[in-house]
Write a structure and sequence with these properties.
Blueprint: H1 15-30, H2 40-53, H3 59-66, H4 71-81, H5 89-104, H6 109-123, E1 128-132, H7 138-145, E2 151-156, H8 159-169, H9 176-179, E3 182-186, E4 201-205, H10 216-227, E5 231-237, H11 264-277, E6 281-287, E7 298-304
Parallel strand pairs: 1-2, 1-4, 2-3, 4-5
Antiparallel strand pairs: 5-7, 6-7
Helix pairs in contact: 1-2, 1-3, 2-4, 3-4
């Protein structure tokens, strides 16, 4: 009845091949993965198991267990596994991002969002800024252009995204003085990271909707409790406004990776509860055209200690 056991495996193969099997099968046999499973785990599974898992008689069970029974991730992994030519995951993510941009492009929402966040940070007098979930670095680029921000830290869980940000910012060609102003860190917003503590301000732009709802409480504790910047500028889509996007099918989210999109009332309830629980004040601002019936396309909360 013990959870622990000894097992002996016998095979004639290269050590690297055996290790690739074990990398996948150990958590599958354990059936109790001990860290958060995101879409990045699909790439790890295909990288370690692509050569043998495709023909394995238990490939579906292995895939479901490895991805902790998250149905959408398992279906995507199996579909990619069975394709002869596996798509580049970075290209897939970029394609999904372009789809979201195309939905919002008519009103130039991305630029309006960056402008609104910069204005809120300037109004708060922030000089040190965390960009949490910085993605490919568009906000970081805008922050660097503004000399009032002396210290800028971009944070993302995806190493590939940080590489894109570094290329966008041209870090390798940057002057030493500019290079001292910016740092890129790989970190997850659902794990405490002491490197993210002690900053004056944090921007969380179009990030929380990519988190599964059960992880929001952990995100709140890490952001408002552990990191505790003096000012937090947070934006998220307003799902009520989706009906104004002609290219967006009814009932669809703006991005395939969005786990949810909130109404204005849902966002206010969440933000107010988080502010009260962690001794912040909060105010709400519209981003983009504020439709009298369905509100703005993006909703923004500015938290202050």
């Amino acid at each position: 009845m013990s959870r622990y056991l000894d097992a002996t495996f016998t095979a004639t193969c290269r050590v690297a091949e055996a290790l690739n099997h074990l990398y996948v099968l150990l958590p599958v046999l354990d059936d109790d993965k001990h860290y958060w499973v995101s879409r990045d785990e699909i790439d790890k599974l295909l990288r370690r198991g692509g050569d043998w898992l495709r023909a394995h008689p238990e490939r579906e069970l292995i895939t479901r267990r490895y991805l902790r029974y998250q149905g959408s991730l398992a279906r995507e992994a199996l579909a990619r596994l069975l394709e002869e030519d596996q798509p580049d995951p970075d290209l897939e993510e970029a394609r999904h991002d372009r789809e979201e941009e195309q939905v919002e492009e008519r009103i130039g929402l991305r630029d309006q969002r960056i402008g609104a966040v910069l204005a809120a940070l300037r109004a708060a007098g922030a000089r040190q800024v965390l960009d949490l979930g910085c993605g490919d670095g568009r906000l970081l680029q805008a922050l660097l252009r503004d000399g009032s921000f002396e210290r800028i830290v971009g944070v993302d869980v995806s190493y590939a995204a940080l590489e894109k940000a570094a290329r966008r910012l041209r870090l390798e060609q940057m002057s030493p003085k500019q290079r001292e102003r910016i740092e890129l860190l790989q970190s997850s917003l659902t794990y405490r990271d002491r490197r993210l503590e002690g900053h004056e301000a944090a921007a969380v732009v179009e990030v929380i909707e990519h988190l599964d709802p059960p992880r929001l409480r952990t995100f709140e504790r890490n952001l408002f409790g552990a990191s505790r910047p003096g000012v937090i500028v947070l934006t998220t889509p307003n799902v009520e406004h989706n009906v104004r996007f002609e290219s967006l099918p009814a009932g669809s989210f703006r991005h395939r990776d969005h786990r949810f999109e909130w109404t204005r009332e849902q966002f206010r309830q969440w933000a107010t509860q988080a502010a009260e629980a962690h001794r912040y004040t909060v105010r709400f601002l519209p981003v983009g055209p504020d439709d009298p019936e369905v509100g703005p396309p993006t909703q923004m909360a500015v938290f202050s200690t």
